[in-house]
Amino acid sequence: MMRKIALWEAKHPKTVLLIALLLLIPAGIGFLLTRVNYDILSYLPDDLPSVQGERVLDETFHTAGISVVILEDGAPRDAADLKARVAEVHGVKSVIWLDSIADISIPADILPDMIRDIFYSADGTDTMMLVQYDPEATADELMEAVHDIKALLRENEFVSGLSAIVEDTKSLADNQAPIYITIAVALALFVMALTMESWIQPLVILAALGIAVLYNMGTNFFMGSISFITQCIAAVLQLGVTMDYSIFLIDRYHEELPHRASREEAMASAVVKSFTALTGSSLTTVFGFAALCFMRLKLGFDIGFVMAKGVVFGVLTVIFVLPAILLLTDDLLHRYRHRSLIPNFTGVSRFVTRHRRAMALLFLALLVPAYLTQRGLDKYYAMDRALPDNLPSIEGLHRMKEDFNMASTQFVIFDDSLPAQDIMDMERDISRLKGVSLVLAYNQVVGPAIPGNILPDEILALCKQDGKQLMMVNSEFSPATPEMTEQLHEMEVIVSRVDPDALITGEGAVTQGLIDTTDIDFAVTAVTSIAAIFLLIAIVFKSISLPVILVLSIELAIWLNLGISALLGRVASFVDPTVVNCVQLGATVDYAILLTTRFQEELSLRPTKLEAISVAAATTMKSVFQSAAVFFAATFGVWLVCDIHIVQGMCALLARGAIISEIVILIFLAPLLCLSEGIISKTTKHWRARKEVATNA
Q1: Which of 224, 276, 576, 631 would be 572's cystine partner, CB 3.0–4.6 Å?
Q2: Could you tell me if 649 and 573 are in contact, meaning their C-beta atoms sit under 8 angstroms apart?
Q3: CA 1 – CA 4 distance, rounded (Å)
Q4: Structural contact between residues 264 and 75, judged by C-beta atoms closer than 8 angstroms
Q5: How far apart are CA 619 and CA 346, in angstroms?
Q6: C-alpha–C-alpha distance, residues 209 and 23, integer Å
Q7: Rounded to an integer, what distance in angstroms lies between the CA atom of residue 355 and that of residue 667?
């Protein structure tokens, strides 16, 4: 059946290519209609109390996306004028500032302490106002409102808050993505042009894989939305991990040409013989990405599913579209041939084989230190670390922390029917916690400073809604610090004593939920990816020992990669270790499988296993070098120009990981296979079925 399909597509390349191009139309429409989510915190599990609290803030108090506008050295008249202009922006529901509750002619230094602490910095020179958005506004309308507010601000005025950070992230990603994708593709083309034997072949491969990328991105429409991280890295990663499938088919086609009556028959034969190998090889990569889907943080499913789908589209395009493009450009491929600049690895393979025992001992000696070192990699969780400091929202966030002593803000949502004394006791106990700089609640706002009967509706709505009351707690401690963790724990004890159903949310609480979730996710996905690929290798080779050797080799490469960052004092995004572990394992274990398969073949052709492993290493490292070089070039291109630190850091790790995996396979796996060949033959079915070889290890 497969041969009939392959022969038909080989004889009708123009028809196949036309169908492939027509399918780009719905894919393009789907791509344009796919919504991009720029809020990482929205991917947290729904059952976290802090996430449930954010939902109440949004649905009940309409403050989840609230923005803060800060004016440095702002005169009251200037602030009042800016407030009026911000209030006119489409999508803004209300703007709360000093003039909402007091006469702006009153000097700041004689205002009641509560009012001054809310609206003025500690030295009284800076002021801030709160912007609430229309709860009926769509996500796009809210982003447009934030954009319009930014346009109203002058040099010494800033806007911050979650919505402002999300809008800045969107603007940065939309502006930079076309640039770094272009650079990544250009670098990948440059590397392919140097390492392949035709100047046209890289363009052919890029055309086929480009179609696969568009199919993948277009079908994301059915997911509803994808994260901006996925949007930024999906195309580059898909190109990097599926490029070798194209090379495999092209090489097979050239092998079949001398033995077939026509190019069409040669291509059909190449497709049939490549199909099983490609599907088997791609499964390891699919399993690596699929492991991300088991994360409780739904960002893992977002990245993992899109990339696993991308690998599948890559294989399908190589099988059904690339042959058509190859046949239509075959004359050009042969006309513009040149010598490949891939280094000769014969000398290196002989050296590591000759010193195989020393290499094996070095491998074993590195395992424990590499594992322990990578565990010491520091991670950041706050979004302000993921973005450049010069963004307006990040500058505003720094002003909030430095000038208003608001390193983070928590919100306590509790039952409004609680006895007044219990509420006051709770507020008092929280205000006495170490690091708490301000507690703002209804009982403190309404009192001697402001009579309840003159409290504006928009301020009352911030305090009480639908039987719930809201308390704001400003902290001197930054999120994701031990001090914040301890403060949150003590706050939970105080609050639960008064209202067991109360919710604590806000930047620190949500970030703490992120920490707890991703710590579990890293362990789960690491075990899942290793177990899945271990099982797959065991089935493919029918072996007990080979999965241990191959997976352990790639795990060493991963530990070395993360360990280098730890030794250099780098701080990685919270998601980097999880993604890198699954992607590097799934994408580069193919290198190990390729070497092992070639070693098994050479064992039946060479008089000794030393010669077999030497030849296998020298030949397979050409393919591994080419694949790793392209993967490195593509991800390095993103690192080179991307200013979104969370994307830049991930691509830096993936680029370095490809090179480290290549080195580990050559200098460690080859000697290990040679030394363990006796054990492998006893624990692997049909390992040396065709011919016994000498065992001089």
Answers
A1: 576
A2: yes
A3: 5
A4: no
A5: 8
A6: 14
A7: 10
How big is the chain, counted in residues?
697
Distance CA 400, CA 279 (A): 54
CA distance between the termini of the chain:
45
Is-contact 532 291, C-beta < 8 A? yes
Q: Which of 312, 262, 324, 267 is nearest to 286 (CA)?
A: 312
pLDDT in tens, 150-204: 989 888 888 888 888 888 888 888 888 888 888 988 998 899 888 888 888 899 9
What 8-state DSSP symbol labels residue 57?
I
At 122, list the tokens.
């500690």
Give residue 694's pLDDT. Answer: 42
pLDDT at 679: 92
Strand arrangement, sheet containing 157-160: 92-96, 127-133, 67-71, 157-160
User: Collapsing DSSP states into helix, strand and coil, what is residue 610?
Assistant: helix
Contact 71, 104 (CB under 8 A): no
Q: Are residues 115 and 101 in contact, defined by beta-carbon separation less than 8 angstroms?
A: yes
**Hey, is 469 helix, strand or coil?**
strand
Q: What is the pLDDT of residue 690?
A: 45
The widest CA-to-CA distance across the chain, in whole angstroms, is 98
pLDDT for 383 beyond 80 = no
Return left, alpha or beta for 464; rule: phi > 0 is left, psi -120 to 50 is alpha, else beta.
beta
Give 359's contacts (C-beta < 8 A, 6+ positions apart): 352, 667, 668, 670, 671, 672
pTM for the whole structure: 0.84
**Residue 109 exposed, middle or buried by CB count within 10 Å (0-12, 13-18, 19+):** exposed
Query: Facing residues of 503 across strands?
Result: 413
Do the Cβ atoms of 505 and 57 come closer than 8 Å? yes
